[in-house]
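Hi R.,

Here's the chain you asked about this morning:
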Amino acid sequence: MGVHDPEATAPYAARPVDAALEDAFGVERPLVVVAGERLAGTSRAVHRALRRMLGDRLLVPITEPHAADLADVLRRARTVADRSGPVVVLADDAPPALLDQVGAEVVEGLGTRVRLVLTTRRVFLDAHLAAPTRALLESALVEVPTDDDGPIGERVRPVDRARAVLEPDGRPSPALAVLRTVVDWERLGVGLPLTPRLLVDLAAVHLDGPGARRPRRRALRRATRHLLRPHQGGLRVLRVARRAGGEHLVADRLFSHLADRDPAGWTVSEGFAGALWHHLAPAERARVARVALARGDDQVALWLATQVPPDDLEPEALYRLGVALAARSAAHTPEPGRWDGGALRWLAAALDRADPDLVRRAHRQILLLEARRELREHRATLPHARTPGDDRDTPSPHGAAAP
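And here is the predicted structure, written out as tokens:
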């Protein structure tokens, strides 16, 4: 659960949300959603309330929430319940890709035998979820209030030590680039194992910037080994897990927030998406693009969906990609309308299998794009009328008078 004291031997700091959590777990609520800011102690509070109120139930954890098929997990949980008694299915820090799977059919399959508990962040609930899904989640919501003194997790000593390693002198280091790569890989739910070699191939993009020099591969390998050592109060920033029969690097949840570029901890960089594209097959690109759309990272999804056949994506995803590309086209000042044709192709592909509401929305977007293209072509054909002000000498970029 991301709790570093699973036996609850350390003193527990009481939280205002404790009573609400015990009430939620004490009654027969098949679905409980607990939302809190990162490092607010949400996992610890849920862990304590579950032990107190449902300590006799079996726990079925969703260990990889970014890639999990919720319907399949619940089917297996029902099999366990038939054999061993009531179970609690738990996803800690559930991302939008998992939240988006909570539909009416899922909730109808829950009950006293199988209960579902999700911890997540408020910002994830505000992502691009379907309206019925958001309504279901909100109806089962318990919110963890923010501590006036800041998140509890920010005040623990190992986090301070790790921050000093990642940003010495307040500047990003190869170690921070390595951590950001691991965290972005997790947030996009990439199904492939992240090996040390692949990590080094991708990490340099996180140190790109004006005047920045890319670190050598040797420095990135050294930083990776450093973060794998148990030196942060006995904890490792990175650890080695197993996926698809091979090594897979993951970040310890206590430190993963240190990779964030802003307090919301939200956006995956487009540079990383562009580098990742070369390592994924089309089917995996389509799956990861869906996760990016669920996170609200539409520009990242555009990168990943390049050369993905439209048949591999759902109509809603195709529509979202068309809208995102149209917005990018409108904002591209050097060559306005550069990507309008691509946006029209995404929108047209969305029409084939869409429901009536999506068809209407896609048609409106297509008409707007066509009107914009016609206006641009009309302006290009208008003659330019000279004015008296054009006859005055004006400085040119090269210092000579303009003709």
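One quick note: The CA atoms of residues 26 and 301 lie 41 Å apart.

Cheers,
M.
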